[in-house]
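Subject: Sanity check before I submit

Could someone independently write out the structure tokens for this chain? I want to compare against mine line by line before I put it in a report. The sequence has 238 residues.
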Amino acid sequence: MDLNDLTPTPDVIANWPRGQRSILMANLLRDLIVSGQTPPGERISERVLTEKFGISRTPLREAFKILESEGLVSIRPNAGATVIQLCTEDVRDALEILIGLESIGAEQAATRASAEEIEEIAELNAKMIEAFEKRELMEYFHINQEIHQKIIDAAKNTALSRIYAAESARIKRFRFAGNRDLVRWKRAVQEHAQILDALERREGALLREILKAHHIAGWKIAQKALIADGQIRPASSP
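---
Independent answer below. Compare away.
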């Protein structure tokens, strides 16, 4: 785990609101896992983190539980957490579920989204483009994920939003990898313009198909990169 890439200093963490420290630490560790800086199979040590940041074990263990619920780590008592490694079939199955959920959400959002919700998504899309132009991949990714979730939320289906958020969390690191390829990243930005246009015109069927193609194209690129990096195992591996 490359702790030098973790930006908050102990002084900053000491000023985190006490009731939010576990969530903020989970966000920090999630970014390390998603970006590949903490690779599958690597142990995240409680001792190292407490010494590095001066954070107590209680919020740290709560952060581990959040990441465990998202399918990112497995926890060993008194030993910290280990980043889970998946195979291509695991990711493919999760992606198929995600596409199915977005297919439902897209058509519902096209008819149920308020003008204010669509405007908010358009504003996020503009911010995402700014992040792309600065080549700030993690910032771009956070905004990107927020856009996808807000499209689902605009469907006004609480169960759908909850299930989508859980499934999306499981494969964030694999969706992130697709945009490490600059050609694919540029294409993803163009696809998001099409997504926004379809939503603004309230064309649910078109929005559904664009979102599906968007995920499939991203996964094709991400899969090759992740196998090459050892981030996931090919399906044929034992």
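---
OP: Matches mine. For the report I'm noting this point. The CA atoms of residues 14 and 55 lie 8 Å apart.
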